[in-house]
């Protein structure tokens, strides 16, 4: 790979902000403005906003606004007049097209704090770029009119946002794409394995699992994005307080767990030729062995999970139960 620390120190650091738009004229202008008005050291960093419009057929307002951005050298459009492929593949196209040192992800309807860029870059510089890195921050929740809801993502979900192990990534959607950034190495790993990316659930949770398996995830405990909650959110805040990680809560959510199980296996195949941290290998081995397991059914799930020792065993039991319940349903 052509990414190395010498490249970082010898040249201006290139940071790409990637934004997938979809019929976003109502909200996208203040978001783009907040990105282009970031306060940072322009002698050291170069910020470029890359936009891919997934709408296929833009309305007049979107066309007019995008035309107004063409004169700004900091804004680039990719895949003009392309077909609608969905948010996951749209972000893959953005990552594939752009070569930068770091990547920050943006939704079309949020608003960044003026210091978000500089805080992210400061944190990136303090981390080891020789491994895949994912960085994410807290978010301030606002309504459709950008009025504060007086709570953050961290407060709303009621859990420690800094639980970044592989086991936590399996049972938790704590990483929000709108608050996320990655280094070049993590981008290269997933982009160079497109066949795996095409099978995933969503780009943000997948990148989180890949980073937790082979590198490092770090949390910035500051709300650096105004996260707009409105009727057109693709993904928003769906629920209130969570308890601690507890496999019992997945009894009625096995379809969701199954998606994350499959995504974990995909991520493991994605990084197997790079590096899997030793502490993650035991759990991975256990998960992969479950495909052929027939000994577990939902009726003994409670007994198994209560007898499990430690979080790793509880997760293994939870996934064992998942395979068992699916087999039970298919046979009845």
TrEMBL record:
Domain spans labelled Glycosyltransferase 2-like: 17-131
UniProt-listed Pfam families: Glycos_transf_2 (PF00535)
Molecular function terms, GO-annotated: glycosyltransferase activity
Ranges in coiled-coil conformation: none
Annotated keywords: Glycosyltransferase, Transferase
Annotated Gene3D superfamilies: Spore Coat Polysaccharide Biosynthesis Protein SpsA, Chain A
Record protein name field: Glycosyltransferase
